[in-house]
Amino acid sequence: GLLLSVSGGKDSTAMILYMKEIAIDQDKLEYVFMDTGWESVETYSYLDYLESNLDIKINRIRAKVKIKDEHEDIYRTCLNLMGREHSSFVATILNKTMFPAGAFQWCTSILKIDPFKLFLNELDYQPISCVGIRRAESKRRSNYSEWEFNDGFDCWVWRPLIDWNESQIIEIHHRHNVKPNPLYLKGSHRVGCFPCIRSNK
Questions:
Q1: What is the rounded CA–CA span in Å between residue 190 and residue 53?
Q2: Which of 15, 18, 82, 112 could cross-link with 34 by S-S, CB 3.0 to 4.6 Å?
Q3: Strand 155-158 relative to strand 147-150: parallel, antiparallel, unpaired?
Q4: Do 14 and 54 meet the contact criterion of CB atoms below 8 Å apart?
Q5: pLDDT per residue over 146-183, tens digit each?
Q6: What pTM, to 2 d.p., does this model score?
Q7: How far is residue 179's CA from residue 200's CA, in Å, rounded to a whole number?
């Protein structure tokens, strides 16, 4: 089966739509969103929109971070201010008493990669991990292959949109009458962790 990583961004949404266009059997598709607990309210709502409009179910997984007893009160205060029930990101910051920074950029590995590995291990089939990464996104990604075996995940990775440009991404949204994440319309270029504390101005 194919396991599609969904971020709420334009590229992963385009990948969902592309799978529909090439008539991949829906029974062979599964969707997963790695929830860091530091996503925009608009992104969470957009996932609901995708589920409703595309008739799909997105598995929402997150790191199971046990908050230390001495941090419980401030953790609850943070959650109340943020208006949410959990945040693995905030819990990990409090446990580590530090933000991700420089050589200690722990956020992706702890909050996305580790829970994704656990999710893969619990599947009763050998998945092909599909991601909406494009070479045009960055210099680092320009060298990526469409197919490769990932030893860390112990599965094949397929990047079906690897050679697409941004115009193609926008066009497939229009063809299927699917709105983009509202953050793009507010000027954001990316809609991952929001706000990413390592973003530049």
A1: 22
A2: 112
A3: antiparallel
A4: no
A5: 999 999 999 999 999 999 999 999 999 999 999 999 99
A6: 0.90
A7: 27
